[in-house]
Amino acid sequence: MGIPDLSGKVCMITGATSGIGKAAALALAPMGPELVLVARDRERGEDTVDEVMRASGNEQIDLMLADLSSQQQIRQLAKDFLASDRPLHVLFNNAGALLRSFQETEDGIETTFAVNHLAYFLLTELLLDRLKASAPARIVSTASDAYTAAGGRLDFDDLESRKRYWLMKAYGKSKLENILFTRELAKRLEGSGVTANCFHPGFVGSNFAANNGSVAKLAMRFLGLFNRSVEKGAETGIYLCSSPEVENTSGLCFFDGKEMPLKDFAKNDEDARRLWDISEQMTGLVAS
């Protein structure tokens, strides 16, 4: 099958200045879409835009700035995009955090939960009407098989890991939340022309743990001997964003271009609905 033609499409990618997000931007740009790259840092964002333009010859690359740990900045990002009156055909939720110790955002929410789940949830909900109006459209979220580190069903009495914070369990819980969110979102979108899927990129060599100190950097460097490139890790996300093969597929988690089997606790519909309701309250989309 040839390269998909995304001419006339608009695709937003979060976490676009490094890792999977940047690799996806570099791969999608030659397909002809208008890309909206979301970044925290202006300089890194502008450098990424320039690099993607040079590599692809596609000059329809825009930069939007937002720290996705801040709900106010997520709301402003959505407001600014909607004000542009552009359609939105692909939303690629990709920005993520992996933190060694417990930290809170400016909203008083544990950071891993805020960035890896609530940011996906809030940005998607704020842009959902535009996605529906642009249908057929796709929502793609970066999850991970690290969801198994959650150890089972979500503990709704400790979603923010305040009782005991351990890096991999907090991260695993957030990736489980990505999967549950995707499944519930897909159900709510049935018949709308908008699909929702997520994917496991594999263990990817990137600067993902760069903010966790020298020990974490050394560990990632060692593990890097066994990991896959960001380009390989991004392939399934790119496939879900662009391939005609999955244009009518929704509610699944993929790995290496195929549906990934999930443990029963990641397919718990009751937990997915409960997480949705709590997420609405925590992002102010409904009154608590």
Which shape, going by the Cα principal axes? globular
Largest beta sheet, briefly?
A: 8 strands, mixed
CATH homologous superfamily assignment: NAD(P)-binding Rossmann-like Domain
CATH architecture: 3-Layer(aba) Sandwich
Residues in helix, %? 40-55%
Q: How would you spell out the order of helices and strands?
A: EHEHEHEHEHEHHEEH
Unreliable runs: 208-226
Radius of gyration: 18 Å
Q: At the third CATH level, what is the topology name?
A: Rossmann fold
Structure description:
- With 288 residues, the chain is an alpha/beta fold.
- It has a single domain (10-282), classed as Rossmann fold (3-Layer(aba) Sandwich), CATH 3.40.50.
- The protein contains eight helices and eight strands.
- Helix 1 runs parallel beside helix 2 (42-56), helix 4 packs parallel to helix 5 and helix 5 packs across helix 8.
